[in-house]
Amino acid sequence: MKIKNYFFLGLFFVSSLLMAQEKKISGTVKGEDGLPLLGVNIVIDNTSKGTQTDFDGKYEITASPQDVLVFSFVGYKVIKRTVGQETVINIEMVSDNTFEEVVVVGFGKQSKRKVTDNIASVSSSDINNIPIASMQGALTGKAAGVQITQINGKVEGGVKMRIRGVSSISSSQEPLYVIDGMPLINDDESVSEAPINPLISLNPNDIESIQILKDASSAAIYGARGTNGVVLITTKQGKSGKTKVSLNTSTGWSEATNKMKWLNAEQYVELFTEASTNSYGAEDTWLTEEGGYFDWMSNGKDWRTGEVDTDWQDLALVKGSVQEHNFSISGGTDKTLFFISGGYNDTQGIVRGNSLDRYSFRGNVDHKISDNFRVGMNTSLSKTKISRIGTDNSFSTPLQAIAQSPLTPAYLDDGIVPNNETSIYYNFLMQEYNGNWEVNIFRVLLNTYLEYQILPELAFKTEVGYDNNNQTEEYFAGSLTESASTNGYADANAIQSDKYSISNYFTYAQTYNEDYDIELVGGMSFEESSRKRQYVAGTGFPSDDLQTVASASEITSGTSSRTKYNFLSYFGRATFSILDKYLIKGSLRYDGSSRFGASNRYGVFPAASVGWIISEEDFIKDSEILTLLKLRGSYGVTGNAGIGNFASLGLFGGTAYNQKSGLSPVQLGNPDLKWEKTNQIDIGLDFGILNNRISGEIDYYSKKTNDLLLNEPIPGTSGYTSITRNVGSLTNKGLEFVLNTDNVMSKNLTWKTSLNLSTLDNEVTDLPSGDIVAGRNIVREGETISSFYLVEYAGVDPANGDALFYKNSVKTDGSLDRTTTNNYNEAERIISGSPYPTFMAGLTNTMSFYNFDFSFTLQGEWGASLYNEGGKFQSGNARYEDNQTTDQLDRWQNPGDITMVPQARMYSTNGQQASTRYLEKSDFIRLRNLSFGYTFPREVTEKFSVDRLRLYFTGINLLTFTDYSGYDPESSYDNNGNSNIEKGITFYSSPPAKTFTIGLNIDL
Amino acid sequence: MKKYNYLPIILSLLTLPFIACDDNLNIEPEQNLSPEVATESPANVKKILNNIYAVARDNGSYGGGIALASELIGNNGSLSWNGTYVQPAEYNEKAILSDNSFVESIWVNAYDISNEANIVLSSLSVFTDEYEKDVTEGEAKFLRGMAYFDLARLYSKTYVPGSQNSQLAVPISLTAVLDASIIEYPTRNTLEEVYAQVITDLTDAYNLLPDSNDIYATKYSAAALLARVYLEKGDYDNARAMSNDVINNSGAELTATFDGAFNNGENSTEDLFAWQVTSQDASLNDFSTFWAGSEFGGRNGNPDLGITSQHFNIYDDPNDERSLFFYVTSRGTATAKWKNQFGNIPFLRLAEMYLIRAESNFRRSTTIGDSPLDDINALRDRANASLYNSVNLATILMERKRELSFEGFSLFDAKRLGANIGSIASNANRLILPIPLREMDVNPNLIQNDGY
């Protein structure tokens, strides 16, 4: 460096001698938004003389008239100015639309133009300011072929992300999440069956962009974990220039997207009195007599005069609220960039007693030690506190209150103590009154890197990542709750899971004759994940005010455990581009994991892709209309390693009988266990018309997964119920279509539309072990995975009110026997629907008009069904004493009645068995989010030193269009939230929130 | 500039440790042992044996599940089902579906017992101490025999003494399954075959087990269970011999009061075998869950299984302690037999042996050990009920009800004695459990019971 500088100094002297008329020129460089730009390069053309702008965008340079000043800055068009007589030259830089968009890929970046993969990109503007606590929730509807569903309305609820369908039956169906190059811990650590979204501790406002690697060509570089797609998250970084301070604050309220209609007290009395009469005769007045069952329920209130009519639904589904405050400070110089942010989110859920608050902090720094040596660190800390409620399958969960009778008062006469004396089921209000369930999650993410440019064309990068997820869950149920018999119960569960990853790789990039580009990437990575758990439970508390296990008179249960797994991987990728037209890419990953059997520890995952930028060909190059036309195709192999850490081993675990130790066989071994491999073909066409005002992608993919890792059910007579094997295969095929249009691009009005459509056809193509039936779902060869397998309901016999079912037994000629029967055991189950949509669409419109901006996303899914496992209780023509949906009033009453609701017979089964009676199509279109903003004119805000002030309104799930009659077409049972086969089941599952917020963005 | 040039070399060197770190991929589980280690020593094999008791005591099986099925399917109106669970409601309605998860638990647990017993029995060669080996073998066979006996009674048509009994019962599986290659898809054995297996196992256990064995199965646990099996088979000679052996030789004595036989933390003097329950158990105690009021750990039905007035018709003396062994809750009357959530669950009580001996002697017109009258009066005396001057079969069977109600005998006694349950004939298909749907789905060689 120094030698060069002296050289320049020398030159400078020489030139100054030669050019005596030179003078000082100064000025300010600003962007289109009027903000000063820092670090703009200013060079005198054809010399090495130059400078850079400072924090205020100011520069100073000595030049002579006729010299040409060249202003350049990344992302902006180069501006040249010939020096004349003036001494001040102010420049407004114009951003460069033709600037090649860069996308993040595994272990590197690539020009979007030359990408031969299918990658969906979502930028910060798409997801920021959406007041959803979970990062995934903000992505819904934004990417083709990506289905994102929050399990139900609980704030911490698990989120399912399915990229291009479901590729596995028994191992993980979740994508791999990678943040700033580091694979994330994504294990649900909930102590109950209801999952907690493991990514809930990430603040979505820190995200700069998300790339979803969908095809094998892009995902295969992540080898054994690429099958379900890879989500690459890049966090925000400062830009050189003026330090930017941003504040975002919003507040709002929420409510359930939908409520159902339940019988009121009068209707309840009518229906159940009739049901009892039908079962026991009118002379048996056990319900209505003095001191009868209804009197008992009413607990001293007079139901006969309508003194009590409890709306339990309104007690369970309440008004929620959202508050979000974020700030960030970012900026930097040409050497150092930084981004600091802090965030606070407080979400009070719409299900009573459910809330979340999260504090998060992020600091990202990138520093150039020298021209060829960079270091950086991205770090984030967050603390998330969640107040939980019971799983959908617990009486203590609020929404199960809809089963209570409207005759039962919610509270005792004092109005404070919940009435648990005469409720049919445990009164959930007791949990709020006398219990507590809190989760605290501490998450630390740390990622440091060193990058060294060994030669201009050869770089080396080493990254060390660390992820620590520390979760404590504490539960207390006092002496009045379900734990009354033991005088209270408390437990505490602590999880420490951490993961470190090291990756080292070289990148070689060279251009020959300007026509041939080559890029090579090669390296290795090692990851180790470990998890520790401690748990203790106790009963017998001296006081309901003492709520930790410390006060328990008896410790009833305790455990601790440790487990570990790791991955050792080598990878390489070669990318060629010839004449900017012909693109070829190949990659190879070699993965080893401790999770697999000794005989199959390593797997090889190759991928190749080609692209042809047709629009660069001479015959079309000058087309005014067609700006881009690119054909691409890829093929590759990815794996799925999402199984238990020791799935290949035969295992015995510790147990106890009479407090003496025992050993129990817990798992059958299979040393041949190996990767689940997926071969995926993708053919795509990218196009851009009219200077890319209309652009889009069309893709067809076919994904075939072989050697399925299957928890294959085996006869219980063996002493076990399942074993993990590599058997069978399934395919996912689909078409994806993305269209982006700039409908209007005038100075004061812009309007952009983005549409994505995708189809999905899933089929289990080979299942040598035969059908796997789990609950209401089946995995069967030739059918969609997890298809519903149910007896078909045939309505009601008009003659006697009996529920009828189609027999559907296979006749000798192969056809189904379509006669009906009232004997359920005579009816056969048939495939009756699928829990997965076959068609999905997302439509986002973004508009700005003068200082107003407006955007909304509509999202729809078609082809899926939901089975209501609670239907037999909720809509079971008064078989159980549970309150019923009002449609049950259409019950059969007299011979000749035509209805779908059988005669009400209390305590006598008539149509409540599992059948298609409780299966419903769940197609929907939803106004997923909408925002409307107003930015105050700069002239006004400048007076207060504010660069930008925007006031906005945002709404989430404002409208839902659906024929589905249950709570919500997307809400499903969380008690088996991690089951892969039992899908599309709902059971007292709460609807999601409909949220309205008002917020302010302030940039200083 | 130059001074940085060695850095990439150092950094590249960092990668070297990992190139040679294949060993890192060998991670041993910290909570589990391999099957080889688990079966390599007498100490470990005995730990597996201990676990079989835990599996059997599971709330789905002997911790309440089997008794619940028997009492509710056998309910003729003496019980009222107040609970919210669907599975017991199906029992009570005698409209059981094959996907009933309680039915599945009984089946899966029984075969878990069977397989773990098979594992223990196939590992006996590691023992060097003959006594220890015999006891281990005896206990494993006791547990296996017990499991098949209850499977046969629940999933098969009733045993008809003196006939072929070729009706399908349940598959007998005697292979120890320790790796995936030995998984079988068996067919159902006949009832005769299953009973033969049960009697072989229990007789072996009787011959191998010692007189006392802590809280584990003893010689007289096996004898008492054999007495129950023979009675079920209508083999009164053997039932009499076994019950007489137990009464004379086991050293067990009726507790001083009826109350003393229940809700004990330690086995009582009349327990020939009891399931041990502690507050630390992984599994609930379903006797208390379903039969106790909520203040004693019962569910919200308070109690889920209420005792109706009809039940009280069986008592003939108001002073009979057994007729007073109840308590009233907010929603009904509960039996006091299952008040202690963490109390032991009596499985083979000496009182049952008196009843078996009395019934067998009466049916065979013998008085081996003692007369039926004396045996019945022994129980009545203990319960503070007036003594009889004479007994007949009806009074003996009625005494059996008074003594053993709510302990899981209803369905089996009704079937054995050919007594209708309400209007349902004792041999009706509805009174037989379906082969669990999961099992039918997995194993094509199974044939479903009639009526399902």
Quick description:
The complex is a heterodimer of chains A (1004) and B (452). Chain A is mostly beta strands and 1004 residues long.
Structural features, described:
The complex is a heterodimer of chains A (1004) and B (452). Chain A has 1004 residues and is mostly beta strands. Chain A is built from ten helices and 53 strands. Chain A is globular. Chain A starts with a helix and ends with a strand. Chain B is 45% helix and 6% strand. In chain B, helix 3 packs antiparallel against helix 6 (101-122), helix 4 runs parallel beside helix 5 and helix 9 packs across helix 12 (350-364). The longest helix of chain B is centred in the first third of the chain and has 26 residues, at 130-155. Chains A and B meet through strand 22, strand 25, strand 26, strand 30 and strand 31 of A and helix 1, strand 1, helix 2, helix 3 and helix 5 of B. Strand 30 (651-657) of chain A pairs antiparallel with strand 1 (32-33) of chain B, so a sheet runs across the interface.
What key attributes describe this structure?
heterodimer, A: 1004 residues, mainly beta, 22-stranded antiparallel barrel, 5-stranded mixed beta sheet, 10 helices, 48% strand, B: 452 residues, mainly alpha, two-stranded antiparallel ribbon, two-stranded antiparallel sheet, 16 helices, 6% strand, globular
